[in-house]
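Researcher: Good morning. I'm working through a list of sequences from a screen, and I'd like to move beyond sequence-only analysis. For each chain I'm collecting a predicted structure so we can compare shapes side by side. This is the next one on the list. No need for commentary yet; just the structure.
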Amino acid sequence: MEEKLTVQAVVEEKGFGEESLLPQENRIMGNLSYLFAWIGGCVFIGYFMLGASLVPPVGKLNLLQAFVCMIVSMTIVSFCFTLNGQAGHKYGIPFIIQARSAFGIQGSKLPGVIRAVPAIFWYGVQTWVGGLALNAISVELFSFDSPMFWFVTFQLFQILLSILGFKGIKWLENIGAVIIMISLCWMLYIIYAAYGSQVQEKIINIPGTWGLAFWGGTTAFIGIYTTLMLNISDYTREFNKSSTTKLMFILHIVGTLPTTLFMAVIGLLAAGVTGQWDPIHLFVELLPNKLVLVAALFFVVLAQITTNIMLNVVPPTYVMMDLFGIDWKKGSVITGLLAFLTFPWKIATAGGFFLFIQIYSVFLGPIFAVLVVDYYFFRKQQLDLNVLYDVNGPYKSVNWAGIIAIVIGAIFGAIEVQLSWYISLIPAGLSYYLMMKYGIAKNYLPQYSEKISA
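Model: Good morning. Structure tokens for this chain:
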């Protein structure tokens, strides 16, 4: 039997930019829209770089090992999306509210900020890439060369788009996803046509390894998506409520795996035979036809928009709304302005980017473990929303069991950064379970908080 809520849910259809942290009863994404959102959202420059980092000269894998690495990674990611997305799908709540169950209302602000920071950095990096693509178009058409001008202009444009909220995101992703998939096939064809004869020698025929470099590669791919594993409820709360868990998993893997493979394969083929992963640089060299070059660069720009608006605006904006009590529009503007301060041109390199992902995975894996253990072992998939939204209730402060578990998991993950996501999960989840079970945070147990709230 569904619990009777006193928390007022958002039941009416929301307009553009009318986002709320309250439970979302009205869902705006059907099955196809949800699939397209992931296809469009998962096309971003990080996969070019990660693909390049798997094979020589940066990495040690051959083509087969790189393929298996990505398939293993995305299967794990899709399972974790579905596992942690149940709370958002069932109750219509965002991540920052879901986290209150395990960390407390004040304590949840820490994992919220930890989640928001990488998104803002991604936002900056992808805006820089989009600005470079716009600059290349500008050079070809108008002989105007100013990457910084186009970086700032592109970011201001994205800030205006982000103000539209999920209703705007839905239509942007629906249109962009179709164009993006066609463009990816075309890009792969161009790269292979130019360098296919060298692929056999430099990528396929090398011995590679199934050892640490292979599993480190999976950690890097999972690391990108670990951020989304945490705040997946921000998206599942908008997903058709009548859809099943099985269908949700299918849509996650169909929406993420092919897109990831296309992007990463383009990056690894280009890097493996030329040493240059940057698709903008390659297109300028490979495409003498000005019209075709401009079309290819426009795709790069579109890909940055669909990913930024879907994946890099939503998480930090919800965090801003929770931290400062502001509305969506103000939060999305602040998020966009903070992306200016990330100095993306400093970190947008294949090696540096790879290390950046692995380092922040040290913290994100433990948060994921705590959320899952809390929801499935202690809440039994039943949340008391009245308690979660009561700022003066039993969850009003910090659940130190959750915070300590993050620290314990991160310490274990730091032992071997290349495998940090795997290593941190069990210590974080187990320590949280034991601390909760044996009374370090008694008032956060469901049966105790129900007595207090009554």
